[in-house]
Amino acid sequence: MTPPEGLPQSWVEALLDDDPEELYQRAPCGLLSTTPDGELVRVNKTFLDWTGYRREDLVGRRSFVSLLSPGGRLYHETHYAPMLQMQGQVREVALELVRADGSRLPVLINAVLDRDPDGEPRAARVVLLDATERRRYEQELLLAKQRAEASELRARELARTLQQTLLPPAPPTIPGLDFSAAFRPAGHGAEVGGDFWDAFQIGPDDWVVVLGDVCGKGVEAAVVTSLVRHTLRAVVIGLHAPSQALAVLNEVLLVHETDRFCTVVLVRLQRQGATWRATLGSGGHPAPLLLSPGSPAVPVSGSGPLVGVLDNARFEDRRLTLGVGDKLLLFTDGVTEGRRDRELYGDARLRSCAERHRGSTEELASAVLEDVVMFQHGNPRDDVAVVALGVPG
What we know:
By secondary structure, the chain is an alpha+beta fold. The protein has two domains: 128 residues, PAS domain (Beta-Lactamase); 221 residues, PPM-type phosphatase domain (Phosphatase 2c, domain 1). It is built from eleven helices and 17 strands. The strands form four sheets. A five-stranded antiparallel β-sheet has the order 2-1-5-4-3, sandwiched between helices. A hairpin with a 5-residue loop joins strand 4 and strand 5. Helix 1 packs antiparallel against helix 2 and helix 7 crosses helix 8. InterPro entries: Bact_Sigma-Reg, PAC, PAS, PAS-assoc_C, PAS-like_dom_sf, PPM-type-like_dom_sf, PPM-type_phosphatase-like_dom. Pfam families: PAS_9, SpoIIE. GO terms for molecular function: phosphatase activity. Keywords: Hydrolase.
């Protein structure tokens, strides 16, 4: 009879011959018997073969705990021995034996405590299973986990670096206008998103503010985001109306090799004494909120379809005057579509938050970002970008 894999021929023969002693000695596991205080009184040949000890070196001369590594001895005294005494057994305890040559053998241990009729401990029976392959497998899993964590960390750093190239390094200083921006990537920031903002000057007291959202995430979305930003920077200089700039951007995206589209709100700001004339154009983007002193927040925007989807798309402008104390809040759909279970953050919650934080553009932008992130338990599912601008008092 051919023995099953892992079982010695002698053990199978002993099983067929029904030889209990040979079964004990040649069992495919280490077998020990100890006194209640741990002195070795019997060991099988399998255990001796594994460890390289002679029987006479162990029986009556060594304790079980003396065969363990320093860490194993500590665990034996603090966990193994007390558990055996209190519960009468231990199961699948992982320890390391120190072989006769000083090398170590990882083992899994099951043990039971025999008691006499009066309930007094009589002997401990210990079964040891060679855990070398299991330990190797666990180490491989640990290394794989460490490599995955390192790779994820590198991906996050790369995403963070790439995202930074898509955003201005700092909000601009605009004479006569307060400006603040806030951004939070989705999740833990491991993947670059498509939300972006930009602000730049095109003439004396003449500025352009852009907030947009390219569909999708990853490197391709980042490429399109960069294309959108640079296209708008190039075309707004020669085109007065935001709607015209969005029409050109629409054509650029249609002929680009990508099939990605975006939403954009573009605001051209021209100073007129103590006020600013704002011309807004939008391509499928959430309407900004206008906050005027003593009035509730109201949505204002030009209108138009998603950018990069339709041929000959038509965009319209909306003009308004920003007076002293007025503020304009721009945001991406990561704000209003922020989700907590089945509940959306929504327009009403956004207006309420904005109306409670009218103090400064920095307070407004930061409060909205913080509120929508907290609504999602600190783990937003989408990028969140907020821009606030206003005429100081």
